[in-house]
Protein backbone atom coordinates (compact mmCIF):
# COMPACT_ATOMS: atom_id res chain seq x y z
CA UNK A 1 0.00 0.00 0.00
CA UNK A 2 1.28 3.45 -0.86
CA UNK A 3 0.96 6.29 1.64
CA UNK A 4 0.87 9.69 -0.04
CA UNK A 5 1.82 12.73 2.05
CA UNK A 6 0.66 15.96 0.35
CA UNK A 7 2.06 19.21 1.77
CA UNK A 8 -0.81 21.40 0.56
CA UNK A 9 -4.48 21.07 -0.36
CA UNK A 10 -3.60 21.69 -4.02
CA UNK A 11 -1.13 18.83 -3.94
CA UNK A 12 -3.72 16.58 -2.23
CA UNK A 13 -6.30 17.42 -4.94
CA UNK A 14 -3.76 16.64 -7.66
CA UNK A 15 -3.04 13.29 -6.01
CA UNK A 16 -6.78 12.52 -5.71
CA UNK A 17 -7.29 13.42 -9.41
CA UNK A 18 -4.44 11.13 -10.45
CA UNK A 19 -5.32 8.34 -7.98
CA UNK A 20 -9.12 8.44 -7.47
CA UNK A 21 -8.95 5.01 -5.79
CA UNK A 22 -6.75 6.42 -2.99
CA UNK A 23 -8.53 6.73 0.36
CA UNK A 24 -8.21 10.02 2.25
CA UNK A 25 -7.13 9.63 5.86
CA UNK A 26 -7.78 12.43 8.38
CA UNK A 27 -7.74 11.31 12.04
CA UNK A 28 -7.83 7.67 10.94
CA UNK A 29 -10.23 6.70 13.74
CA UNK A 30 -12.60 5.04 11.24
CA UNK A 31 -10.14 4.16 8.46
CA UNK A 32 -7.64 2.38 10.74
CA UNK A 33 -10.40 0.38 12.45
CA UNK A 34 -11.62 -0.83 9.05
CA UNK A 35 -8.07 -1.69 8.00
CA UNK A 36 -7.35 -3.53 11.25
CA UNK A 37 -10.52 -5.60 10.81
CA UNK A 38 -9.59 -6.38 7.21
CA UNK A 39 -12.65 -4.57 5.82
CA UNK A 40 -10.53 -2.07 3.89
CA UNK A 41 -7.32 -2.65 1.95
CA UNK A 42 -6.88 0.39 -0.30
CA UNK A 43 -4.04 0.45 -2.83
CA UNK A 44 -3.15 3.93 -1.59
CA UNK A 45 -3.87 6.36 1.23
CA UNK A 46 -3.71 10.15 1.04
CA UNK A 47 -2.92 11.56 4.49
CA UNK A 48 -4.86 14.84 4.68
CA UNK A 49 -4.27 15.30 8.41
CA UNK A 50 -1.31 17.66 7.94
CA UNK A 51 -3.08 20.13 5.66
CA UNK A 52 -3.38 23.47 7.44
CA UNK A 53 -6.03 24.58 4.90
CA UNK A 54 -8.47 22.05 6.41
CA UNK A 55 -7.97 22.75 10.09
CA UNK A 56 -9.44 26.23 10.55
CA UNK A 57 -12.87 27.55 11.41
CA UNK A 58 -14.22 31.07 10.96
CA UNK A 59 -17.35 33.21 10.85
CA UNK A 60 -18.08 35.74 8.09
CA UNK A 61 -21.29 37.79 8.16
CA UNK A 62 -23.13 35.20 10.23
CA UNK A 63 -21.95 32.29 8.07
CA UNK A 64 -19.86 29.69 9.88
CA UNK A 65 -17.18 27.69 8.08
CA UNK A 66 -15.71 24.61 9.74
CA UNK A 67 -12.73 22.98 8.00
CA UNK A 68 -13.07 19.24 7.50
CA UNK A 69 -9.87 18.60 9.46
CA UNK A 70 -10.99 20.37 12.65
CA UNK A 71 -10.92 17.82 15.48
CA UNK A 72 -13.58 17.31 18.14
CA UNK A 73 -11.06 18.43 20.79
CA UNK A 74 -10.61 21.75 18.94
CA UNK A 75 -14.37 22.23 18.67
CA UNK A 76 -14.77 21.67 22.42
CA UNK A 77 -11.93 24.13 23.11
CA UNK A 78 -12.69 26.85 20.59
CA UNK A 79 -16.36 26.79 19.54
CA UNK A 80 -18.26 27.30 22.80
CA UNK A 81 -20.86 29.47 21.00
CA UNK A 82 -22.08 26.35 19.15
CA UNK A 83 -23.43 24.41 22.10
CA UNK A 84 -25.07 21.48 20.27
CA UNK A 85 -21.88 20.92 18.23
CA UNK A 86 -19.77 21.08 21.39
CA UNK A 87 -22.10 18.67 23.19
CA UNK A 88 -21.93 16.22 20.28
CA UNK A 89 -18.13 16.58 20.05
CA UNK A 90 -17.69 16.02 23.77
CA UNK A 91 -19.71 12.81 23.50
CA UNK A 92 -17.49 11.27 20.80
CA UNK A 93 -15.28 8.36 21.90
CA UNK A 94 -12.51 9.14 24.38
CA UNK A 95 -9.97 12.01 24.67
CA UNK A 96 -7.67 10.13 22.28
CA UNK A 97 -10.43 9.78 19.67
CA UNK A 98 -11.46 13.43 20.11
CA UNK A 99 -7.84 14.52 19.60
CA UNK A 100 -7.67 12.75 16.24
CA UNK A 101 -11.27 12.43 14.99
CA UNK A 102 -12.67 15.12 12.70
CA UNK A 103 -16.07 16.27 11.50
CA UNK A 104 -14.83 15.73 7.92
CA UNK A 105 -14.17 12.10 8.80
CA UNK A 106 -17.63 11.77 10.35
CA UNK A 107 -19.07 13.09 7.06
CA UNK A 108 -16.81 10.83 5.00
CA UNK A 109 -17.91 7.74 6.92
CA UNK A 110 -21.57 8.83 6.71
CA UNK A 111 -22.69 6.44 9.42
CA UNK A 112 -26.26 7.13 10.61
CA UNK A 113 -24.68 6.97 14.10
CA UNK A 114 -22.15 9.76 13.38
CA UNK A 115 -22.70 12.17 16.26
CA UNK A 116 -21.76 15.38 14.42
CA UNK A 117 -24.26 14.65 11.66
CA UNK A 118 -27.60 15.39 13.42
CA UNK A 119 -26.08 18.70 14.50
CA UNK A 120 -25.12 19.61 10.93
CA UNK A 121 -28.62 18.54 9.81
CA UNK A 122 -30.32 20.72 12.43
CA UNK A 123 -28.07 23.64 11.41
CA UNK A 124 -29.12 23.04 7.77
CA UNK A 125 -25.43 22.82 6.93
CA UNK A 126 -23.83 22.43 3.52
CA UNK A 127 -20.86 20.21 2.78
CA UNK A 128 -18.09 21.92 0.83
CA UNK A 129 -16.29 19.69 -1.68
CA UNK A 130 -13.37 20.50 -3.95
CA UNK A 131 -11.72 18.87 -6.94
CA UNK A 132 -8.80 19.96 -9.08
CA UNK A 133 -10.80 19.81 -12.32
CA UNK A 134 -14.05 21.49 -11.25
CA UNK A 135 -13.15 23.59 -8.21
CA UNK A 136 -15.51 23.96 -5.28
CA UNK A 137 -19.17 23.00 -4.88
CA UNK A 138 -21.49 22.93 -1.85
CA UNK A 139 -24.13 20.29 -1.29
CA UNK A 140 -26.93 20.49 1.29
CA UNK A 141 -26.26 17.86 4.00
CA UNK A 142 -29.18 15.70 2.83
CA UNK A 143 -27.89 15.67 -0.76
CA UNK A 144 -24.40 14.73 0.44
CA UNK A 145 -25.51 11.91 2.77
CA UNK A 146 -27.26 9.62 0.31
CA UNK A 147 -27.46 6.39 2.35
CA UNK A 148 -25.88 4.41 5.15
CA UNK A 149 -22.12 4.93 4.65
CA UNK A 150 -22.79 6.41 1.18
CA UNK A 151 -22.13 9.97 0.10
CA UNK A 152 -22.39 12.01 -3.09
CA UNK A 153 -18.65 12.77 -3.16
CA UNK A 154 -16.99 12.27 -6.58
CA UNK A 155 -13.88 10.06 -6.79
CA UNK A 156 -11.61 13.03 -7.47
CA UNK A 157 -13.03 15.23 -4.69
CA UNK A 158 -12.08 15.95 -1.09
CA UNK A 159 -14.33 17.28 1.66
CA UNK A 160 -12.85 20.66 2.53
CA UNK A 161 -15.39 21.77 5.12
CA UNK A 162 -18.95 22.42 6.11
CA UNK A 163 -20.81 25.69 6.54
CA UNK A 164 -24.06 26.98 7.97
CA UNK A 165 -25.83 30.21 8.85
CA UNK A 166 -25.47 31.11 12.54
CA UNK A 167 -28.69 30.28 14.37
CA UNK A 168 -29.80 32.69 17.12
CA UNK A 169 -31.48 30.63 19.81
CA UNK A 170 -30.96 27.79 22.26
CA UNK A 171 -30.24 24.20 21.28
CA UNK A 172 -28.80 20.90 22.43
CA UNK A 173 -27.46 17.52 21.36
CA UNK A 174 -28.10 14.43 23.44
CA UNK A 175 -27.84 10.72 22.85
CA UNK A 176 -28.73 7.40 24.41
CA UNK A 177 -26.26 4.53 24.69
CA UNK A 178 -25.59 1.58 26.91
CA UNK A 179 -23.09 3.69 28.91
CA UNK A 180 -21.92 7.27 29.01
CA UNK A 181 -18.76 7.07 26.91
CA UNK A 182 -17.11 5.01 24.16
CA UNK A 183 -20.37 3.75 22.79
CA UNK A 184 -22.23 3.93 19.50
CA UNK A 185 -25.47 5.82 20.08
CA UNK A 186 -28.74 3.88 20.16
CA UNK A 187 -30.50 7.17 19.40
CA UNK A 188 -29.23 10.74 19.07
CA UNK A 189 -31.09 14.02 18.76
CA UNK A 190 -30.18 17.61 18.00
CA UNK A 191 -32.71 20.39 18.51
CA UNK A 192 -32.13 24.03 17.64
CA UNK A 193 -34.50 26.95 18.01
CA UNK A 194 -34.17 29.54 15.26
CA UNK A 195 -35.55 32.69 16.86
CA UNK A 196 -35.25 34.74 13.66
CA UNK A 197 -37.13 32.28 11.46
CA UNK A 198 -39.45 31.29 14.35
CA UNK A 199 -38.75 27.67 13.72
CA UNK A 200 -37.69 24.68 15.82
CA UNK A 201 -35.46 22.20 13.96
CA UNK A 202 -34.92 18.60 15.05
CA UNK A 203 -32.61 15.96 13.60
CA UNK A 204 -32.27 12.32 14.62
CA UNK A 205 -29.29 9.97 14.40
CA UNK A 206 -28.97 6.17 14.79
CA UNK A 207 -32.69 5.59 14.19
CA UNK A 208 -32.77 5.11 10.42
CA UNK A 209 -30.55 4.46 7.42
CA UNK A 210 -29.63 8.15 7.29
CA UNK A 211 -29.94 11.22 9.50
CA UNK A 212 -33.61 12.20 9.70
CA UNK A 213 -35.24 15.63 10.12
CA UNK A 214 -38.54 15.36 12.04
CA UNK A 215 -40.32 17.88 9.77
CA UNK A 216 -43.88 17.32 10.98
CA UNK A 217 -42.81 17.68 14.61
CA UNK A 218 -40.92 20.87 13.66
CA UNK A 219 -44.00 22.39 11.97
CA UNK A 220 -46.27 21.37 14.80
CA UNK A 221 -44.21 22.78 17.66
CA UNK A 222 -43.27 25.94 15.77
CA UNK A 223 -46.99 26.61 15.18
CA UNK A 224 -47.83 25.78 18.82
CA UNK A 225 -45.26 28.35 19.96
CA UNK A 226 -46.90 30.92 17.66
CA UNK A 227 -50.38 30.12 19.00
CA UNK A 228 -49.13 30.40 22.59
CA UNK A 229 -47.58 33.82 21.79
CA UNK A 230 -44.27 32.39 22.93
CA UNK A 231 -42.17 33.62 19.99
CA UNK A 232 -42.82 37.21 21.11
CA UNK A 233 -42.83 36.47 24.82
CA UNK A 234 -40.83 33.40 25.93
CA UNK A 235 -42.48 33.68 29.37
CA UNK A 236 -45.69 32.44 27.71
CA UNK A 237 -45.60 28.69 28.31
CA UNK A 238 -46.28 25.91 25.88
CA UNK A 239 -49.04 23.55 27.05
CA UNK A 240 -47.84 20.15 28.32
CA UNK A 241 -50.03 18.58 25.65
CA UNK A 242 -48.10 20.40 22.89
CA UNK A 243 -44.82 19.13 24.31
CA UNK A 244 -46.19 15.60 24.41
CA UNK A 245 -47.51 15.90 20.85
CA UNK A 246 -44.09 17.14 19.72
CA UNK A 247 -42.33 14.18 21.39
CA UNK A 248 -44.79 11.74 19.77
CA UNK A 249 -44.25 13.26 16.32
CA UNK A 250 -40.45 13.13 16.70
CA UNK A 251 -40.70 9.43 17.64
CA UNK A 252 -43.00 8.83 14.65
CA UNK A 253 -40.36 10.30 12.30
CA UNK A 254 -37.80 7.66 13.35
CA UNK A 255 -37.28 4.66 11.05
CA UNK A 256 -35.40 2.33 13.38
CA UNK A 257 -34.50 -1.34 13.01
CA UNK A 258 -33.96 -4.00 15.65
CA UNK A 259 -30.23 -4.69 16.03
CA UNK A 260 -27.67 -5.72 18.65
CA UNK A 261 -27.68 -2.23 20.14
CA UNK A 262 -31.44 -1.95 20.69
CA UNK A 263 -34.87 -2.81 19.42
CA UNK A 264 -36.83 -0.53 17.12
CA UNK A 265 -39.37 0.04 19.90
CA UNK A 266 -36.71 1.02 22.41
CA UNK A 267 -35.16 3.42 19.91
CA UNK A 268 -38.53 5.03 19.15
CA UNK A 269 -39.18 5.38 22.87
CA UNK A 270 -35.68 6.87 23.23
CA UNK A 271 -36.47 9.50 20.59
CA UNK A 272 -39.57 10.50 22.51
CA UNK A 273 -37.65 10.92 25.75
CA UNK A 274 -34.83 12.85 24.04
CA UNK A 275 -37.33 15.10 22.26
CA UNK A 276 -39.29 15.89 25.41
CA UNK A 277 -36.07 16.76 27.27
CA UNK A 278 -34.60 18.80 24.43
CA UNK A 279 -37.68 20.99 23.93
CA UNK A 280 -38.04 21.49 27.69
CA UNK A 281 -34.38 22.57 28.02
CA UNK A 282 -34.78 24.93 25.05
CA UNK A 283 -37.96 26.50 26.39
CA UNK A 284 -36.48 27.15 29.82
CA UNK A 285 -33.34 28.56 28.19
CA UNK A 286 -35.51 30.90 26.12
CA UNK A 287 -36.90 32.30 29.37
CA UNK A 288 -33.33 32.92 30.68
CA UNK A 289 -31.29 33.31 27.51
CA UNK A 290 -27.60 32.48 27.75
CA UNK A 291 -27.21 32.44 23.95
CA UNK A 292 -27.78 36.19 23.41
C1 LIG B 1 -12.96 3.89 19.94
C2 LIG B 1 -13.78 4.72 19.00
C3 LIG B 1 -14.86 5.43 19.48
C4 LIG B 1 -15.64 6.19 18.61
N1 LIG B 1 -16.71 6.90 19.11
C5 LIG B 1 -17.48 7.63 18.28
C6 LIG B 1 -18.58 8.35 18.79
O1 LIG B 1 -18.89 8.35 19.99
N2 LIG B 1 -19.33 9.08 17.91
C7 LIG B 1 -19.03 9.12 16.57
O2 LIG B 1 -19.71 9.81 15.81
N3 LIG B 1 -17.97 8.44 16.07
C8 LIG B 1 -17.19 7.70 16.89
N4 LIG B 1 -16.14 6.99 16.37
C9 LIG B 1 -15.89 7.03 14.93
C10 LIG B 1 -14.90 8.11 14.46
O3 LIG B 1 -14.08 8.55 15.52
C11 LIG B 1 -15.63 9.32 13.86
O4 LIG B 1 -16.46 8.92 12.79
C12 LIG B 1 -14.66 10.41 13.38
O5 LIG B 1 -15.39 11.58 13.11
C13 LIG B 1 -13.88 10.01 12.14
O6 LIG B 1 -13.00 11.07 11.85
P1 LIG B 1 -11.50 10.80 11.35
O7 LIG B 1 -10.88 12.12 11.10
O8 LIG B 1 -10.78 9.91 12.28
O9 LIG B 1 -11.83 10.04 10.00
P2 LIG B 1 -10.95 8.99 9.16
O10 LIG B 1 -10.97 7.67 9.81
O11 LIG B 1 -9.62 9.56 8.81
O12 LIG B 1 -11.84 8.96 7.83
C14 LIG B 1 -13.18 8.53 7.86
C15 LIG B 1 -13.75 8.51 6.45
O13 LIG B 1 -13.82 9.84 5.94
C16 LIG B 1 -13.03 9.94 4.76
N5 LIG B 1 -12.38 11.26 4.82
C17 LIG B 1 -11.73 11.81 5.87
N6 LIG B 1 -11.34 13.06 5.57
C18 LIG B 1 -11.75 13.30 4.29
C19 LIG B 1 -11.65 14.41 3.41
N7 LIG B 1 -11.05 15.56 3.77
N8 LIG B 1 -12.21 14.30 2.17
C20 LIG B 1 -12.83 13.16 1.79
N9 LIG B 1 -12.96 12.07 2.58
C21 LIG B 1 -12.43 12.15 3.82
C22 LIG B 1 -12.03 8.79 4.82
O14 LIG B 1 -11.55 8.41 3.54
C23 LIG B 1 -12.90 7.72 5.45
O15 LIG B 1 -13.76 7.16 4.48
C24 LIG B 1 -15.32 6.23 17.23
C25 LIG B 1 -14.21 5.51 16.74
C26 LIG B 1 -13.45 4.76 17.61
C27 LIG B 1 -12.26 4.01 17.07
Supply database-style keywords:
292 residues, alpha+beta, Uridine Diphospho-n-acetylenolpyruvylglucosamine Reductase, domain 3, Enolase-like, domain 1, 2 domains, four-stranded antiparallel β-sheet, 14 strands, binds flavin-adenine dinucleotide
Task: Summarize the structure in words.
This protein has 292 residues and is an alpha+beta fold. It folds into two domains: 2-48 and 56-165, Uridine Diphospho-n-acetylenolpyruvylglucosamine Reductase, domain 3; 171-287, CO dehydrogenase flavoprotein, C-terminal domain (Enolase-like, domain 1), CATH 3.30.390. It is built from eleven helices and 14 strands. It has helices at residues 9-18, 31-36, 72-78, 83-90, 95-100, 103-109, 116-122, 141-144, 215-227, 240-253, 264-287, and strands at 2-4, 23-25, 44-47, 57-60, 63-67, 126-131, 135-140, 145-147, 150-151, 157-165, 171-176, 187-194, 199-205, 212-213. The chain has a five-stranded antiparallel sheet with strand order 4-5-10-6-7. Strands 11-12-13-14 form a four-stranded antiparallel sheet, with helices on both faces. The protein has a three-stranded parallel sheet with strand order 1-3-2, covered by helices on one side. A hairpin with a 6-residue loop joins β13 and β14 (212-213). α3 (72-78) crosses α4 (83-90) and α9 (215-227) runs antiparallel to α10 (240-253). The model has no long low-confidence stretch (mean pLDDT 96). Flavin-adenine dinucleotide binds next to β2, α2, α5, α6 and β10.
Amino acid sequence: MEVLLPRSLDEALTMKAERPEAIPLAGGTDVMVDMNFGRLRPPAIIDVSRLGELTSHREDNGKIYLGSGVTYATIVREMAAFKPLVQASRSVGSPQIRNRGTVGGNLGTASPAGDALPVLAAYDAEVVLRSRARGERSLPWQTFLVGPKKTAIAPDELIVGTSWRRVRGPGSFSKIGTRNAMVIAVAGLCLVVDEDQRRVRVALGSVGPVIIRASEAEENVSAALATAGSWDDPAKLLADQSIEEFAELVAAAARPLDDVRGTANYRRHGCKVLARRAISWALSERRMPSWL
